[in-house]
Amino acid sequence: MKILLFLATIALTINFQTDVTQMREDFHDISTHDEVKEFIQKYEQNPPQSEPYVASAIMRRAEFVFLPTTKLKYFNQGKNKLEKFIKNNPQNIEGRYVRILVQRNIPAFLGYSDNIEKDRKIIRQNIETSTLPKDYKQLILKNIQ
Q1: Given its phi and psi angles, is residue 111 left (phi above 0), alpha (psi -120 to 50 degrees) or beta?
Q2: Burial bucket for residue 76 (CB in 10 Å: 0-12, 13-18, 19+)
Q3: What is the C-alpha separation between 46 and 40, in angstroms, rounded?
Q4: In whole angstroms, what is the distance from residue 103 CA to residue 86 CA?
Q5: For residues 37 and 19, what is the distance between their CA atoms, to the nearest angstrom?
Q6: H helices within the chain, ranges in order?
Q7: Mean pLDDT score across all residues of the chain
Q8: What is the dihedral of CA 73, 77, 82, 83, to 10 degrees?
Q9: Which of 56, 60, 64 has the alpha carbon at shortest distance from 83?
Q10: What pLDDT is attached to residue 1?
Q11: CA-CA distance, 141 to 138, in Å (whole number)?
Q12: Which of the listed residues 24, 32, 56, 68 has the most CB atoms within 10 Å of its CB?
């Protein structure tokens, strides 16, 4: 019985890691409105690790809508979700990484660019001790330059 439980735990762990890896890849591959919606739908119910990515995807929906009020609604909805995640997980590298990506790529008039240097510093200080895969650490460091 213990062996079955152990094997089930290993299988679930491998499946979870595969899902997280796939989520990260899917996030970086988003380029259309349909892909944004699919990403949100696929990952919004996943473990807390997906929260910053989903929050950013919600903000990205603003790129693909016409009405300024709808654009602002999506932006604020995602921003609030991302900020809440970072507040509750201040040392989480992925949350801060996603926030850098967002803050670097949105219009300045939105006034959401205050944390880039702070986030870079926290990422650089903590990335070596994180449990992220080596290739993803390298991608993060490359993208925050």
Answers
A1: left
A2: middle
A3: 10
A4: 14
A5: 18
A6: 2-29, 33-43, 51-60, 68-88, 93-105, 116-126, 134-143
A7: 87
A8: 90
A9: 56
A10: 52
A11: 5
A12: 56
pLDDT digits (tens, 9 = 90+) for 26-73: 999 999 999 999 999 999 988 688 999 999 999 999 999 999 999 999
Residues 124-134 have pLDDT tens digits of 999 999 999 99
Structure tokens at 106: 């949105």
Query: 132 near 140, Cβ under 8 Å?
Result: yes
The whole-angstrom separation of Cα 145 and Cα 99 is: 14
CA distance linking residue 27 with residue 14, whole number of Å: 20
Instruction: Please name the residue that has the structure tokens 């062996």.
Output: 3
Those residues whose C-beta lies under 8 Å from the C-beta of residue 104, and which sit 6 or more positions away, are: 113, 116
